[in-house]
Amino acid sequence: MRRGSEDGVYDCVIVGGGIVGLATAYRLTEAQPGVSVAVVEKEPAPARHQTGRNSGVLHSGIYYQPGSLKAVMCRTGRDSMVAFAQAHDIAHDVCGKLIVATDDSELPGLHRLHQRGTENGLKVELMVPAQAAEYEPHVNCVAALRVPSTGIIDYVAVTETLARILSDRGVELRLGTEVVDLTSDGHGERVVTTDGELTTRFLVTCAGQYSDRLARLGGLDPEVQIVPFRGEYFELRPEKHHLVRSLIYPVPDPAFPFLGVHLTTMIGGGVHAGPNAVLALGREGYRWRDVNPAELAETLRYPGFWKLAAEHWRSGLDEMVRSWSRQRFARSLQRLVSDIEADDLIPAPAGIRAQALRPDGGLVDDFLLIEDTRSLHVANAPSPAATASLEIGRHIADRAIDGLRRVGAVDN
Q1: If you average pLDDT over residues 155-180, what whole number do you get?
Q2: Is the per-residue pLDDT at 3 higher than 50?
Q3: DSSP readout, 315-361?
Q4: How many CA atoms lie within 13 A of 307 on its CB side?
Q5: Domains of the chain
Q6: Which pLDDT band holds residue 1 (cuts at 50, 70, 90)?
Q7: What does the alpha-carbon distance between residue 14 and residue 364 come to, in Å, rounded to a whole number?
Q8: C-alpha–C-alpha distance, residues 86 and 83, integer Å
Q9: What is the largest CA-CA distance in the chain?
Q10: Where are the alpha helices (DSSP H) in 204-290?
Q11: Phi and psi torsions of 202, nearest 5°
């Protein structure tokens, strides 16, 4: 019998039923099979937000600063995720991708990415247009970078598999249960929810769009605020699927914090185009009409947002125009593949990038974890968090075990 069912105190409560929260529970119960764990998720099923609304890409880690958590965990996490998918018969395809320079002005950026990929220990190959055409016959480029370790996967299936494994291990999955307060007492951390209270010896929050709020509820100052950006997608009409075989990305603009629209085959079939990035009008503002006045006001009061907007207003305006104009969206894609027309684009569900932003307008580029004696909060987990989730989960689980050792809940 688990200790949590004996004395009413869990060893660990994890808030957030996305892929990072469930991966943390998976790694924790793998390393310490005797611990009592509960996962609290406000939605009626896991993976309803960032996990279930991304492009489904298995990232290689080519874009990230060498030595950063993102670079290290993305590379090892991709391998762990592929192994997990193979072990549990989850659909995936390590199909590779092309990053393409569409004119000579983008060649320096392409070469910088080649150098960064090499520094990150990746196998990458520079290609002339004829070589790129062997992989993507319809692509436009003056040069390309082939990244064979990139792939696609069904992250919802990964999350559902993690949930089944956790249930089999005796983890309590409290779905449809929202956290409304976090407090501390002599026994540990108290998690106040819409379905009662839980007490835990160690608390972990992996709350995505609401990560900063939960950290503050727990008495910690993350020194950042989440500003939500909506990633808008289209899907190509079936008769145009042949234009894209795997993944086609542009050379990213180093002055803009997002990668730009790209083309991605999906593991369930079809081709997605996007994301276009615009300010969301609420932390769950997946459509223009999804307005949360209080959350929008919170963003507009934050000095960091206005400093970011002042620096990137031209790019932000372009994203806004592209959001309202399918023709402009199509023209962005035509730089990569000429044969895509505006009529080929079918609206697809949008996602939210929960971006941690500093008061000075700086974007937190790496994973950000903050902790105290009895809690750890994931304050920033942008892409490639899904790819790296099993390694992020291992890292968080190790920190949680250290915390449980400090309070004598597990052996040293």
Answers
A1: 97
A2: no
A3: HHHHHHHHHH-HHHHHHHHHTTBTT--GGGEEEEEEEEEEEEE-TTS
A4: 10
A5: 3-50+156-223+366-406 (3.50.50.60), 92-152+225-357 (3.30.9.10)
A6: very low
A7: 23
A8: 5
A9: 68
A10: 211-217
A11: -145, 135
Task: Please determine, for residue 352, whether its predicted confidence score (pLDDT) is greater than 60.
Answer: yes
Cα–Cα nearest to 117, from 57, 58, 65, 55: 65
Residue whose C-alpha is closest to residue 124's, from 109, 136, 113, 108: 113
**How is the beta sheet containing 271-279 ordered, strand by strand?**
125-127, 143-147, 97-101, 247-250, 262-265, 271-279, 225-236, 345-357
What does the pLDDT average to over 26-35? 96
State in Å, rounded, how far the first CA of the chain is from the last one.
21
256-292 burial code (b ≥16 CB/10 A, e <16): bbbbbbbbbbbbeebbbbbbbbbbbbbbbbbeeeeeb
* Alpha carbons 316 and 357: distance in angstroms, whole number: 16
DSSP string across 290-324 = ---HHHHHHHHH-HHHHHHHHHHHHHHHHHHHHHH
8 A C-beta contact, residue 15 and residue 214: yes
* Chain centroid, CA 371 distance in Å: 21
Residue type, 160: E
pLDDT in tens, 238-257: 999 999 999 999 998 766 65
| Distance, CA of 85 to chain centre | 18
Q: What are phi and psi of 286, to 5 degrees?
A: -80, -15
Place of tokens 């409560």: 13
207-232 pLDDT tens trace: 999 999 999 999 999 999 999 999 99
Given a cut of 60, is residue 109 above it in pLDDT?
yes
Taking CA atoms, 357 is separated from 122, 144, 289, 351, 399, in Å, by 29, 32, 24, 18, 24
